[in-house]
Design a protein that fits this description.
Layout lengths: L1 H14 L8 H8 L3 H13 L3 E4 L5 E4 H6 L8 E2 L2 H10 L17 H12 L17 H23 L1
Parallel strand pairs: 1-3
Antiparallel strand pairs: 1-2
Length: 161
């Protein structure tokens, strides 16, 4: 169904942090609709709690799933500006992902600082390979690394909007 395709498109744009293509005009071009029809579908998705609305000009829509996965809360329907969204995300940021690792502030501090630097490298971070025995915590390290990369990407994008 078309409304589900539009929802999927906005979620995908949100995951890629492509907010400038998440508006009624771009949706109308992508799905070959009139702009007011695209706007109607997008607003239906907002009212059914599948998207959030940012009241800029043009109005920007973001995927609720992406928002919830990145520290958002299910009570909100939207924001007045991208700055409000940015401030909300910064305020609700989770603690440092690397603080979950035992030894993060002592024996592993220097290694974790190197890993954090790789994650914060401009763009999508530096390619990194984690090796070790089964049960040594590679998955925890990988999740911390990925979380740091996502957080860094978010703030890089917001700086340019």
């Amino acid at each position: 169904m078309l409304i589900n395709e539009i929802d999927d498109y906005i979620e995908k744009m949100s995951k890629n942090l492509s907010f400038k293509t998440s508006n009624a005009f771009e949706v109308s071009k992508k799905f070959k609709l009139k702009r007011n029809t695209a706007s109607h579908y997008l607003n239906l998705l907002v009212h059914s709690k599948r998207l959030l609305k940012i009241s800029t000009r043009p109005v920007i829509f973001i995927g609720r799933e992406w928002f919830l996965n990145n520290g958002g809360n299910g009570e909100l329907d939207g924001f007045q500006s991208l700055r409000d969204l940015h401030d909300f995300m910064k305020k609700n940021q989770k603690k440092d992902p690397f603080s979950e690792i035992i030894g993060h502030d002592a024996s592993l501090y220097q290694i974790l600082e190197q890993l954090r630097a790789a994650a914060m490298y401009p763009g999508k971070g530096l390619p990194t390979i984690l090796t070790g025995e089964t049960g040594s915590g590679k998955v925890i390290w990988q999740k911390s690394f990925t979380s740091t990369v996502k957080k860094n990407l978010w703030f890089q994008v917001m700086r340019h909007l």
